[in-house]
Amino acid sequence: MALQKAQAEGVAEERVEIVEKSDLVTKDFLRAELAELKGDLKTDLIKWLISLQFASLALTVGLIYFLLRH
């Protein structure tokens, strides 16, 4: 019985050491990282859409100018 207890304690200590040395993350950490990533993606998407709107406006104005000149 004492041998089994010593083995169990040894296994438990090894597992604790493995967990402490590993790069495990918690669900809360992952949720926070995902929320930050989604926020960044939304910001990037908004920037792209605004840029495309300005490009479209510039192209439209340029075409109208070109057509009225000829």
Structure description:
With 70 residues, the chain is mainly alpha-helical. Helices cover 90% and strands 0% of the residues. The chain has helices at residues 2-21, 27-69. The mean pLDDT is 90.
In short:
This protein is an all-alpha fold and 70 residues long. It has two helices and no strands.
Beta-strand segment tally? 0
Largest sheet: none
The pLDDT mean sits at: 90
Helix/strand/pairing category: mainly alpha
Helix proportion range: over 70%
Q: Count of helices?
A: 2
Order of helices and strands: HH
Question: Over all CA atoms, what is the radius of gyration?
Answer: 30 Å
Topology:
Elements lengths: L1 H20 L5 H43 L1
Task: Record keyword descriptors for this entry.
single chain, 70 residues, mainly alpha, rod-shaped
